[in-house]
Amino acid sequence: MLIALCCTASAGAATAVVHVTLSDFGIDLSTATVTPGRTVFHVTNRGNLSHAFAIDGAKTRALVHGAVETLSVVLGRVGTYRFSSSLPGQAQLGMAGLLHVRRGLLQPVVAKTTSKLRLTTVASGLGPLTFAVSPPGDESRLMVVQQNGLVLLFKNGVQQSQPFVDLRSVVLADGEKGLLSLAFAPDYKTTGRCYVYYNNRIGDIRVVELHRSAANPDVTDGTHRRLLAIKKQAADHNGGMMQFGPDGFLYIAIGDGGADPPSVPVGAYGQTTNDLFGSIIRIDPRNGSPYAIPAGNPFTNIAGARPEIVAYGLRNPWRFWIDAPTNTMLIGDVGEGAREEIDQLPLDQLGLNFGWPCKEGSVVPPAVTIPASCATAKLTPPVYEYPHGPKRCSIIGGVVGHDPGLRALDGLYLWTDLCDGHIYGLTHVGGHAAVVPLDVSTDEPTSFGTDADGHIYVTTGDGSLLRLEVGDSA
Q1: What is the pTM for the complete model shown?
Q2: I need a surface site. Which of 206, 258, 289, 387 has the fewest CB within 10 A?
Q3: Could you tell me which residues come within 8 angstroms of residue 292 by beta carbon, excluding any fewer than 6 positions away?
Q4: Domain ranges of the chain
């Protein structure tokens, strides 16, 4: 696209050469100005995602990481030409810029573009937050979970004076404990059923079914039905994520319960299957008393094992996300002191053992008593891991992007770290995992969430609700 033009090129004009480097999500040109005539663009993709380069109607193919292509274009008129990535949504995230065609002596100015993502504050000063979610198909309501036991209601972006749920009388908010998540039944529109995961006043885990008020759809009716009651042996490692899968069943993450040496050694419950600690479980809360075990749960017919379990060997799976299009769960498992990791559980391959405490990521954790069963256990390694340390100390998962306003992030697993605060995207194609830094960050991130439109939210420990959006154009 020529933005301004005059003066055609003279015959015999020299060929200009421009080196183009594509990244996630930016484009660097070795020069911002060329003379009129033929320009050869040597394009290299250094990003982890596929990108393309387009200018004045000519474009490369979609280039994978490391791929190179040469594009020859005649830019015959003096003026300003827009370049961009031609792949969906990438130009809006910053992969676009201007190349100037001028006569005479040119200054060697480098053209650089950068990501245009930003976190927009929806609300602040709410107190520590742990989750955000909308009822299925409800584009007007967003529920925001406070650690203290409140579920705040936002309607059309405006916080309502009355909370959707008030569990402060039964919830203990202290350290890692509190009201940790909320899940709406797939048939919530007709049944009004939803589920909360919290620590009660003595720190034990509770999963409870609540019901929407028949008189007022903006509140629950005060009735409840207990699904799970798990006595904790230590204060931390509660897990806390819940989500309904494409199969209609409720998946719940439960941490290994923490440690209190010497009575409760580090990792004591990671490899056990006769309890629910350190596991992802799957239940059918619509049937049974208080729930039914779905057909296909892998431990149903194993003596001594809890039939609810569909994955184990986890330390503290604080957040997971089920991506319905790929039928896959991605789990952010918080490490002990060596590694932070992301695990992948295909929902048609249930029963995986993710290794804790036999392994912490890909390493044997120090100062941990390794169970004898580790010698013969079949362990599933993480799809991605990074060192635990002062700057990156606790992985915070995560959602898979399907925001129609952020098409370039579609299918990426977005995650952050409590200490680092930067948001990253994980792509996992053909057995190869790669991380895409998104050049946006916040302090004290605690969780991700989405609304019914697919918009992506980040909650924080200082009480901010943030929405991931495209920023202003340069």
Answers
A1: 0.92
A2: 289
A3: 283, 284, 286
A4: 2-6+16-115, 118-470
